[in-house]
Design brief:
α11 packs antiparallel against α14 and α21 packs antiparallel against α22. The protein folds into four domains: 145 residues, Schlafen, AAA domain (Methyltransferase, Cobalt-precorrin-4 Transmethylase, Domain 2); 240 residues, Heat Shock Protein 90 (2-Layer Sandwich); 83 residues, Winged helix-like DNA-binding domain superfamily/Winged helix DNA-binding domain (Arc Repressor Mutant, subunit A), CATH 1.10.10.10; 107 residues, Orthogonal Bundle (Arc Repressor Mutant, subunit A). Strands 10-9-11-12-14-13 form a six-stranded mixed beta sheet, covered by helices on one side. Strands 1-2-4-3 form a four-stranded mixed beta sheet, with helices on one face. By secondary structure, it is α+β, with helices and mostly antiparallel strands. The two termini are 40 Å apart.
Length: 624
Amino acid sequence: MTGKHSINPIDILEKLDWHENNDLEFKSAKGGIPKSLWETYSAMANTHGGVILLGVENDGTVSGVIDPARLKKSFWDTINNRGKVSVNLLVDVDVAEVEHEQGVILAIRVPQAGRYQRPVFLEKNPLTGAYRRNFEGDYHCTEQEVSRMLSDRAEEPADSRILEHFTLNDLDQTSVQQYRQRFSSHKPTHPWLSEDDKGLLAKLGGWRRDRKSGQEGLTVAGLLMFGKDEAIREALPQYHIDYREKLSDDPLVRWTDRLTMDGTWAGNLFQFYLRVIQRLAADLKLQFQLDRDLFRKGEAVVHEAIREALVNALIHADYQGQGGIIVEKYSDRFEFSNPGSLLISFDQLLRGNVSECRNKSLQIMFMLLGAAEKAGSGVDKIRRGWESQHWRSPLIREQVQPDRVQWVLPMISLIPAESLHRLEALFGRKFHRFSQQEIQALVTADIEGAVDNSRLRQITAAHAADMTRVLQGLVGKGALTQEGQGRWTRYRLPAPPHSLHKDLDSLHKRSDSLHKRSDSLHKDGDSLFISEFSSTVDNELHHIAKPAIQRKRIDPKEMEKILLKLCRGRWLSRNQISKLLNRNPESLRQRFLNPMVEHGLLQLRYPDKPNRTDQAYTTAKETD
């Protein structure tokens, strides 16, 4: 924030005992309650909640509100009017007056709407009045996004829908028989095993008869679990499953093993699970033993955690969403990604013991094999497995446009020695005066490129307000720099003095955490890296970036073309790109840079450390 009377929003949040993990929006109140406040209310409610500070200008200066009592009455009258706002999520304590020397600020805390309350919309029509939040602010929901929210709030699970014109002939009989065998091995006396195939499917939720309409048939769950790949794609065109191993040190090798729907096997979830669980568990240097049915016998808690993460992606996925199920195995981590949003809040997810599943029949099918839990303990099992090896806590990410949830399970020490050496080199003797929580925050910023409130809570299980104090304390000590505000706040390590660059770089090279650089790539690319722009290059880059600067919203395809032009023939860091385009660096990374790297359009300067703070990008050779 700049300006003589600018506020530090974190001071206000702490004063109210609200925490930094809330999204944050400033609104002027010079003309009363602005119309945009209600769009922001809808957007925050439909995303992760947030805080609106009424009486604060966009630049953080306080203009104040006139007659707070009248303004609050107007606010409550509107939010309780069903013709204006679909639902009021607030209680009295969610609206508070904050005294400031320049005037009164009205702080409004918007909670995240529950699964059965979304979409929160304006003016009676969810298709035209629903909004959500991303890094760039509020945006109007598409018809598809509204449909997904309406589907998630339905009492009937997504996978229980009966598929018209699909029959038992659309199932892969080998899959049905293999499932029966494994079910019998795990629960040999279960009464459902006496049923024929159709009866067993009915018990599992794979075949259903609707009592009201009398309609009977194969369900989405039955087809997903046991179907033939062509039948699944016909019923669910967005369906896609993909397993990738990326174990090579050579950046030009895109993957060392891959399993996807190529017509050589029945591409259903059961067969995908059987094949992928074996690949994920292979080559791990842990003592364990799988029985002949791939479950439990002598199974280490790490393998149980991996299995939970895989099944979690399969049973929580929105199979109408974009991108499909993607499972990736690296030498130092596992990544599980599925379409759809979380059905519970982030806080509920961290606490555990809350079970909200998008596909309940699929959940039952995996439970009967001993491969899933119903009581919300799956997250605890994933954490317990990783804690047993003293690895860094699993990372949970949620994105919008399109909705996706990603779990990253890093096989890296909680506090690696190499990271400590780098931090000691950076901070000197001062480093040993940091508290344990402060050191964990600094290590996370070093390893993952940045740290934020939610990530630190995933690692420490501490309260959000405590983590805000830790992070802000490190900013005050000059140990971290702050980017963004509210939920989008990120903290990064400060740039080291020039004399330390070489020493820190050599420490990165000696890292033992299974990250190994491709020296040839770096040598070939060093001459292209731009640490400081020359005037000629600067003018050229600004000319390329001009269309994005002039328009806040730009077609994604056009943005990709701009990024390719910027990076052609040179290395640009994420921060350089964000400054050129006047965009949030984290938003650029998630929405454009990461997908473009994944699709082979861009390549990383440090492919072994994708989250380095100084990561840079150039066009891939095939796009030059």
